[in-house]
Amino acid sequence: MMRPAFIGLALWVCALLSPLPAAADPVDVHAGVTLDFLDGKHESGGGSARLTFVPLPLVDADVRYERTAIHVEGLPSVTFGYGSDSLEGASATRLSILNTSLRQYVTPSLFLGVGQTVYNQRTYYDLTAQTTPLRTLSQESRVTGLRFEAGLDRTFSPSTRARLVIAVNPVMHGLQYSTIAIAGRSCSVINGSALPACPTSELTDPERSAQADVSISFTRRMRAGELVYGLRYLDYVARYSEAGTAADGALADRNVGFMPLLGFRVKL
Fold it and tell me: What's the half-sphere exposure (Cβ side, CA atoms, 13 Å) at 8?
């Protein structure tokens, strides 16, 4: 997780030593939508599943005044399914993400930012193929934490520019709620360890996670707006943080992969 921070520092030094483009207009507002095609892997304590170019629609907006900017990026709630070679069986996940950050341009092209990330996730597991009385399992969580960014803008021609953003969430915290259906009734479980006699009240598992998020995107000016394309890398790891228990430090969730992206932005 520390590698993106060192890369960001190196970019800062290079930007200070290289020619820089002119500053942006006093007020600049852009908004757009992109499809990020996630190709990677989902892992949990029970196994892993392959994700093959799952389309994730992201909306974003930037408001910049002089050297200060606000960036908002969100993934509306979407559901995608996948098979699994683990004991958890076939699964489906509903996911939404919100990133917000305040960015300060320390030079006309280099910015540093700080903000917040919020993940909302619900995963459903079909356990009907198992020989135990278990039937279905659902796990949902909300995880949030500070986001730190370093970014670099470059203009290659009057119609083409690029942006590199390196972001990390060193520490994120959240709670996971697990519910299982057993022989026609429901009860709650921790870490998938339920028995037919488990209690009927809902139990929670605290989580601690971290994330690295690196993207490079290009925009090409067109008559009606801007074409956006590029590549993004995401590495999110969550572990249970129940001190004094056997589950402390166990893997809760990991999502890692590359995302080619394609979208369109307009200036407002």
Answer: 21
pLDDT digits (tens, 9 = 90+) for 99-155: 999 999 999 999 999 999 999 988 877 666 554 555 556 788 899 999 999 999 999
The pTM assigned to this predicted structure is 0.78
Q: Which residues contact 14 (CB under 8 A, 6 or more apart)?
A: none
- In 3D, which of 34, 48, 36, 105 has the Cα closest to residue 260? 36
CATH classification of the domain holding 165: 2.40.128
* SS3 annotation, 63-117: EEECCEEEEEEEEEEEEEEECCCCCCCCEEEEEEEEEEEEEEECCCCEEEEEEEE
The DSSP string of 180-226 is EEETTEEEE-STT---TT--SS-EEEEEEEEEEEEEEEEEEE-SSSE
Pick the more confident residue, 182 or 9: 182
127 assigned to some structural domain: no
d(CA 87, CA 250): 17
Q: Quote the number of domains for the chain.
A: 1
Tokens of 59: 């909306």
Q: Is residue 193 part of a domain?
A: no
Residue numbers of the domain that contains 17? 2-116+146-174+211-261
Residue 163 lies in a domain: yes
Q: What percent of the chain has pLDDT over 70?
A: 71
Residue 24 lies in a domain: yes
